[in-house]
Amino acid sequence: MAAAEREDGWERENIKERAKLRLRECDVGERFSRLPLPRASVLLPLLLRGGRLCLLLTVRAMQLRRSPGEVCFPGGKRDETDKDEIDTALREAKEEVGLQPETVEVICRLVPGIDKMNHLVTPVVGFIEDTFQATPNPDEVSDVFVVPLEYFIKPLNYVTLPFKTSSGCSGRMHCFTYDDPEHKRSFKIWGLTAHFAVFLAIVIFRVKPTYEVEYDLDNLMTSAENNFMNLYASVNERKSS
């Protein structure tokens, strides 16, 4: 039994170390930090459950003015006291689900996105303890759940939805429905949350999903950064017109 437990522990560490290596290769650091848009950050919390990489997500409280009841990552707008995007993500995660910043192993910042309020949203990826028990702030979060990361590569329930950005750009949006066995309910994951989850899964697993994506998988970071800069240019053009 002890030998089997040791082997299982080594395999878990191997999974995490491989993921960390691939994530660090895609770290954008502060490359986009000085773009003149209001800033926000989200934390993409990774953990191991049953030998699989999983993502922790939250459901926004129904009394919130913006996007009530929608699935998202812990996060929010930059505060004047935050020294960078990582600070913002960790502070918000603590406020929303009781995640202590010192327990998060921050790995990287990925290519940002732009939300419907034209905030520059930076995804900060970090590993959290497998045993983490969330304590949701009821003013902000109504539920917390975990999804296997591979679900964003091979989903059981997936559609694309048409959308138009505030700058007038049209496109297609990922939309996943995840049937959570723990909560015995379904969660709809879409929009910028789904966009970040998909890119994270591609970075780590390095395989093509079972649906179409907007990236050149042979030149993943270049295509992701080009896509973002095209979006940013369209936002800028709209603001100046």
TrEMBL record:
Record-listed E.C. numbers: 3.6.1.77
Keywords: Hydrolase, Magnesium, Manganese, Metal-binding, Peroxisome, RNA-binding
Keyword Transmembrane belongs to the record: no
Substrates-to-products reaction catalysed: tetradecanoyl-CoA + H2O = tetradecanoyl-4'-phosphopantetheine + adenosine 3',5'-bisphosphate + 2 H(+); hexanoyl-CoA + H2O = hexanoyl-4'-phosphopantetheine + adenosine 3',5'-bisphosphate + 2 H(+); acetyl-CoA + H2O = S-acetyl-4'-phosphopantetheine + adenosine 3',5'-bisphosphate + 2 H(+); dodecanoyl-CoA + H2O = S-dodecanoyl-4'-phosphopantetheine + adenosine 3',5'-bisphosphate + 2 H(+)
Gene Ontology CC terms, in alphabetical order: peroxisomal matrix
Domain Nudix hydrolase: 37-173
Keyword presence, RNA-binding: yes
Domain of life assignment: Eukaryota
A Pfam family that the UniProt record links to this protein: NUDIX
Cofactor dependency: Mn(2+); Mg(2+)
Compartment(s) where it occurs, according to its Swiss-Prot or TrEMBL record: Peroxisome
Top EC class of this enzyme: hydrolase
A biological process term (GO) from this entry: coenzyme A catabolic process
Molecular function, one GO term: coenzyme A diphosphatase activity
UniProt xrefs under InterPro entries: CoAse (IPR045121), NUDIX_hydrolase-like_dom_sf (IPR015797), NUDIX_hydrolase_dom (IPR000086), NUDIX_hydrolase_NudL_CS (IPR000059)
Membership in a protein family: Belongs to the Nudix hydrolase family. PCD1 subfamily.
Functional summary from the UniProt entry: Fatty acyl-coenzyme A (CoA) diphosphatase that hydrolyzes fatty acyl-CoA to yield acyl-4'-phosphopantetheine and adenosine 3',5'-bisphosphate. Cleaves CoA, CoA esters and oxidized CoA with similar efficiencies. Preferentially hydrolyzes medium-chain acyl-CoAs and bile acid-CoAs. Has no activity toward NDP-sugars, CDP-alcohols, (deoxy)nucleoside 5'-triphosphates, nucleoside 5'-di or monophosphates, diadenosine polyphosphates, NAD, NADH, NADP, NADPH or thymidine-5'-monophospho-p-nitrophenyl ester.
Quaternary structure and interacting proteins, as annotated: Monomer.
Record-given protein name: Peroxisomal coenzyme A diphosphatase NUDT7
